[in-house]
Write a structure and sequence with these properties.
With about 475 residues, this protein is of the alpha/beta class. The protein contains 16 helices and ten strands. α1 packs antiparallel against α12 and α7 runs antiparallel to α8. The longest helix has 24 residues.
Length: about 475
């Protein structure tokens, strides 16, 4: 195992050096990872980002676009032919059709290469011609990212943490009772193992739908071609010692270890470890609506996610000896169009507070981080109405469930994020002084002028932070 790990590290280091030399001398490559937790809008983010980089009329905060130095952008075959291609054309078609609808969510790893022809800036701009910069976008489910935190946990520790969380969640009561009643010291019975795994998967599905983020193992929710295999047939059990190798508990432990070595580690070495810029999308409004426990859960998830990164500068020598490191991490609260613009600074402040621990750790390691609120595709317009003698800043859009137009006021977010984070850390069951609402909007029909991408909120600022320095 040690020799294998060293070989993997050496292979990644050599690959990183090769990428660095070719990027410096020929055509630079930026590998941008895009992930997020459930319902955060990863597919829409990538689709809108690519569309707006190809037609840059709505990208004034991307300096290279505003200066006119990006002469063209075009899609090319992706470098990794073993990965599915991100279905950009079909996703864009879903958003721009006469009857627009949201595209299907991310279910596996996919990749897309967008190449930009960029004119140089500065004193040498008149001496050099345009160069090509490749943007390789890697899309993967956030549930898989959280799995990276399992690599340093034993089955006993993971089980203890999961069962402890279930003690405070009504959604976990059924599985918790089943796990405590199970005789884990008895010999393995495959039917019992399957029953436990199915019950735990049912809990994970319910927890995700309730707004919780720590739904690991992620492949239980998105199994792909692993569905039904023993590597996905385990579940957390109360700790026991002195058990025989043929007991149910020991077999669950063996399968958990196999999940880490055969599923999680290959994902890290083959895909995640090669990323040098990263976006983590968060449905913060959904968590706020779900209540204090969901907010605390998402705060802890952000800290766990950062532990999976190797943040720091991507200098040539550091690549040689340490492999590629993530240089920049953007934490973005999505669906900002569900709020009037006067509340966007409050949403950004809440996002900054949620990821404070994660950002401090990344900065200490040398990575640049930023938190912001954005909308990858603007689905609403703003409207001010008077109700019961009170002026309300609302948003208006087409409701996803009914198809009707409606004005919506979600409630005022607090000026001080501590008013949300304090009760969340204390384990409160609900917000004491206010109720935060969310509404599901359908994408609005689009009429785009030549040279314009889909309407958005601050997507150009996100692009400037992530790739502006390389353009």
């Amino acid at each position: 195992m040690v020799i294998s790990a060293l070989a993997d590290t050496l292979a990644r280091s050599v690959e990183s050096v090769t990428d660095g030399v070719s990027g410096a001398l020929f055509e630079p490559v930026i590998r941008l990872g895009v992930t997020g937790l459930a319902r955060s809008g990863k597919t829409v983010f990538i689709t809108s980002l690519v569309a707006n980089l190809m037609d840059r009329g709505r990208m004034p905060q991307l300096v290279a676009a505003a200066d006119g130095r990006i002469t063209t952008a075009f899609l090319q075959p992706q470098p990794d032919v073993t990965l599915p291609r991100f279905e950009y054309e079909s996703h864009l078609g879903a958003l721009t059709s006469p009857t627009p609808h949201w595209p299907d969510s991310t279910r596996t790893v996919s990749e897309l290469r967008l190449s930009l022809r960029v004119k140089p800036a500065g004193l040498l701009s008149g001496l050099q011609g345009p160069r090509t910069v490749h943007l390789d976008i890697v899309d993967y489910p956030g549930e898989w990212l959280l799995d990276l935190g399992l690599l340093d946990k034993s089955f006993a520790r993971w089980s203890e943490e999961v069962l402890s969380r279930l003690e405070t969640r009504p959604e976990g009561a059924a599985y918790l009772a089943q796990a405590k009643a199970e005789d884990a010291a008895a010999p393995l019975d495959e039917v019992r193992a399957r029953t436990l795994a199915d019950a735990f998967t049912a809990y994970l599905t319910t927890a995700r739908n309730a707004g919780y983020s720590d739904c690991t193992p992620g492949r239980f929710l998105l199994p792909g071609d692993l569905a039904g295999s023993p590597v996905l047939t385990f579940a957390p059990l109360p700790p026991l010692t002195g058990l025989s190798r043929k007991s149910l508990w020991r077999e669950m432990e063996r399968r958990y270890d196999a999940y880490k070595s055969r599923v999680v580690k290959p994902f890290f070495t083959e895909h995640f470890a090669r990323i040098d810029r990263q976006v983590v999308l968060v449905d913060a409004l959904g968590a706020i609506h779900a209540g204090p426990r969901a907010v605390e859960d998402i705060r802890q998830a952000m800290a766990d996610i950062l532990q999976a990164f190797r943040p720091g500068g991507n200098a040539f020598l550091s690549r040689l000896f340490l492999g590629r490191r993530v240089e920049k991490i953007l934490f973005a609260a999505t669906k900002a169009d569900h709020l009037h613009h006067t509340q966007h600074p409050r949403l950004t402040a809440i996002m900054e507070a949620l990821v404070r621990d994660a950002r401090d750790r990344a900065r200490f390691a040398g990575a640049k981080t930023q938190a912001m609120s954005l909308a990858s595709l603007r689905a609403t317009v703003e409207q001010t109405i008077t109700h019961d003698g009170q002026t309300l800043d609302c948003v208006r859009g087409t409701l996803l469930d009914s198809g009707k137009q409606a004005a919506f006021y979600p409630g005022e977010l607090p000026d001080d994020p501590a008013h949300l984070l304090a009760p969340a850390r204390e384990g409160a069951d609900s917000w004491l002084d206010r109720d935060y609402q969310i509404m599901r909007f359908a994408p609005a029909p689009l009429t785009l002028k030549p040279g314009e991408g889909p309407p958005h909120i601050r997507l150009d600022r996100a692009a400037q932070f992530l790739i502006g320095d390389r353009l």
